[in-house]
Predict the structure.
Amino acid sequence: MKNAKKFEIYRTVFAVFIALLLGYIIIFMTNFSKENTDFLIGLKNAFDKTNTAFRYFLTSPLIIERKGIPEFNIRGFIQWINESVPIIITGIAVSVVFTAKQFNIGAEGQLFIGAVAASFTAVYFPGIPVIHSVMVILTAALSGAVWASVPAVMKSKLNASELVTSLMMNYVAVFTGLFIIKTFLRDPSAGQLVSLPYAETAGLWFLNSRFKWHIGIIIAIFMAILFWFIMKKTTWGYSVRVVGNNEKFAGYSGINTSKTIFNVQVVSGAIAGTAGIIELMGYHGRFLWLNGPGYGWDGIIIATLAGNNPIFVPFAGLFLSYIRVGAKTMGRYTDTPPEIVSILQAVIILLVTAEAFLAKIKEKSVIKEAGKFGKNIEKAGESNE
Amino acid sequence: MSDNIIEMINIWKIYSNGFIANRGINFSVKTGEIHGLLGENGAGKSTLMNILFGFEKATEGKIIYKNSEVHNYNADRAINMGIGMVHQHFMLVPSLTVVENIILGIEPRKGFSTDITKAEKFVSEEMKKYGLPVPLDEKIKNITVGMRQRVEILKTLVRGADLIILDEPTAVLTPQETSELFTALRTLTEKGKTIIFITHKLGEIKEIADRITVLRKGAVVGNAQVNDLTEKDISKMMIGRDVELKIKKNPVKAGEKIMEIKNLSFTGNDGIKKIKNISFSIREGEITGIAGIEGNGQTELVSVITGMSAIQSGEIKFMDKNYDNTEKLRKAGMSYIPADRMEIGVSENNSLEENLISDRFKTKEFSKFGILSYKTIKNNALDKIKKFDIRTDSYKSPVKMLSGGNIQKAVVAREFTSGAKFIVADQPTRGIDIAAADFIRRLLVKEREKKVGVLLVSADLTELIEVSDRIIVMYKGEITAKFDDLKKVDESVLGEYMLGIKRMNTEEIGDLE
């Protein structure tokens, strides 16, 4: 049992390693053969360039060279942490709903609608410190939940596939949201489509105000721990897990499965609803998206990497955010395109979700262990008889 | 040259989840004999035969067929070498005719189409040669289970099988069909075929087998001529100790009606009427047994009674009230041991301790303010593991790591401790070993003495007669017989009603209250 869990961790680490190796090879290939020089020199140049690019990619969120001296990259570090916040929160939302085997992929729309609705609260709610911020987040959670209840109702009443309906609802959310912002909340003095600035009381505390390091990460990690507790230790979480593992068994045991399925989608929607507004109130101070920010999709990647366990979600989120920030810096300082990170993501997800990947090694170790165990039992049996 | 048609030497099989099914088994069969392979469920019989038939690969060991060792073994080669297997669940296409099923994959051709006349001629020759008459032009779905089995045997013969493996062939047969099968098997051996007969029914082995091999916990524990043994010897070999086969039942007076079923009808998803206007009652302190060949409406009856399927027409009253789902029925005091334990009875990816509380995790004992108290959950699991002898590495193991019999014990441990007033037991002992089955039967009888009402559905007629206080026979969705005095009933009497050869009229059935 414990070995099986350990094995999953090894496998994830190994998948990351392979992806990085592949990334290295691809960067190498893009750097090679551009110039018509001698083959060996070309090879050497390509290696040099690739190594530089890779160094930026892997270290820049933490260390940056200034005048040849490496020092702690505070700006990069804060960017890394801040960017991980919304995707950790959507990761938790997706983990929760996937635990019930409900493939609701509506986090993107939920966070968008949540942010739009909460923008009203952020602009117009009376400016009482703390309470205002809390009200903004609650508005977002509530609207995310309401938005998520649409596919949930369609699933439980009409048995419509939540996969399709939640996907479609994402587009509805983005265009409805933009319409609402444009019509009711547009800042006429701004040169582009953004909302009125949020009230000052609707912000988040800063841990470092120069680079706008807000407390979003603390909220995100708190939510991860909270939902880990809810899923593992409460009757509600138990029902969700049992329904996800075997719906027939849940019904047979007297668990109200359709209610559980409905509830889990709404709760997930409430979590996802807060993902966007936390970034907007903490960093930007107004609504400024013209498109879905993509955090909902990232949430699916992160939930998968974390094995749908909320406690692992922050790690997965921090990892994804790290390689993205690294790739952006790499793109700024070298001529390697930062989109390379999408390839790495894809490879990692592919290997982590491919059940057969390294399964032979696992099987062999199990057989070896069981064989030993079995032969021991046999000996014990002989001495008994 | 030995006269063994097959020899399996030092066979080990370890599954990828760590379960050891075969531990160094040596198994040989002489040409022309009927060889009984015995063992409780989980003893490793099916695994061994799957290895012999090339379905599964042994982790270690070698196979010698007709005195030469086989390498790179698979099911294709097994068939080509002359090994045939008749599985417990038949592998036939219901919408095709008998002859089409038999020649499937080896059709004689005429241009681009099948030469059906040639096929029929060929099959009917084989049929006559081995004394296995089947209706060649009838579709599989229209013939009886016994016939289907014959088709399966013919299938192997047509493919040139010399060694035929029969996996629990009598499990689905009535006593009449069983004796026909035995006659056919003897004819086959007279013609030089060899038969491996897997079973855990002792009586049959004495009747049909020449020699037996007994497996226990994945290893061979005995190998002998049947004539040298009594049934008791064999059962001792299988279980490792003496088992008291008779259950003692104290007389209990049936009390109030606990469940009342009135004019119940049910139509399945396929549009076929599965239950036709049935009415009967179940009383406190009484075990009502339901007999019937699979597919005669028992499954649907259980499903409706337990609230898993909605009532379509008719009425069901549980302690004078109507309920419309399982949740409410359970709260009102129903327990249910489902026939399909993997699909319905457990959640295999949840731990054992979590499976043991699935119907009661919301009670004060196991949770406070919505938070589970894992300490009591653990203690509950340890207690059940001890009382019900559930063999597991840990109370935290996922249920899928347990063997079939132990999973059933876990289901039973949960369902018998819920304080129920009414228990529905659907095939409670199917596929589990004799000792565990005996344990479960005794529990049922004990519950009855506590004034609990029991509905027992079982394909094991011996069990049904032994445990029940009265038996109802279902045939094509109707009640066709009722027996109140089970001293006068035996398997063959029940068999006649189950097959539809006989049926009681309404007066004979009488009062079903």
In short: The first helix of chain B runs from residue 45 to 52. The mean pLDDT of chain B is 86. The first strand of chain B starts at residue 4 and ends at 14.
